[in-house]
Amino acid sequence: MVLRLTLVAFACGTLAVQFMGALLPWPAVAAAAVVGTWCAQVAMRRGGRRAAACGIAAALLAGAVLATARAHVRLEDALPRALEGVPLTVTGTVDGMPTRVADGARFVLRVESVVPPSRIPGRLALGWYPPQPSPVATGAETAALTMPRAGERWRLAVTLKRPHGVLNFGGFDIEAWLFERGLRATGAVRPGASNVRLAGWAGDPRDLVDVVREHVRDRLVAALGERRYAGVVVALAIGDQAAIPEAQWRVFNATGVAHLISISGLHITVFATLVGGFAWRIVRRMPALTRRVPARRVAAAVGLAA
What we know:
By secondary structure, the chain is α+β, with helices and mostly antiparallel strands.
């Protein structure tokens, strides 16, 4: 019973922060942490109702302290207003798959350094719309510009601004969407020769999955061409929904199947894996068949058929 009350108290402490008009300053957070630590020590050293009350109080304060500290960290990772519109040169890694558009690309940059030295958010939502192919230096030579790809390291000339969007009732909240993804600044890449790709892959293991996904996406797009549901196939295969036209989204929303585009790819994979695994466990016990066809090939065929 005490454990349940402690967990509920921790959740209540976290929830209480959501109703505050302003976050407590860091000194108050530190003081609450000290009091909570003292309550926890009392709860561990003594027994009875007093210890239970101290344990619940410690859990309540722990929830409030952790939530407040986390909120401070998230809110402090913001672009200072003085840097809005100021030309900057940032170096970083392309985080995730860029979204290709007719006149350029939109992508997320994981910042490593900035010139002149400034305090900017660690992740930026950038758009690159060059009026024409910009030159990019490669040693002593100059080559035609290619848009950023997942995992690449770039040095880019940018101008940034704090996220801002117009929200109508029932409409899409772009500010909340960016905040949820830790994107505390948006901006545009300024055209020029200063935009240089420094490495084809920055070497960060976190980017390996997106590098493979982008390769698969490019192969699918090249194979499907201008077919009507090419974007849907890509979305089901690798979860990239950016290529689905708005007209198709309206049909999916009107017919109540939009959620299938978001999750069916995962479900298809899980279902095929389970069925294929079940077939493998059966076939591997049939020597007459496995002498001719490996059990894994049979399992792969059954999974594909399923």
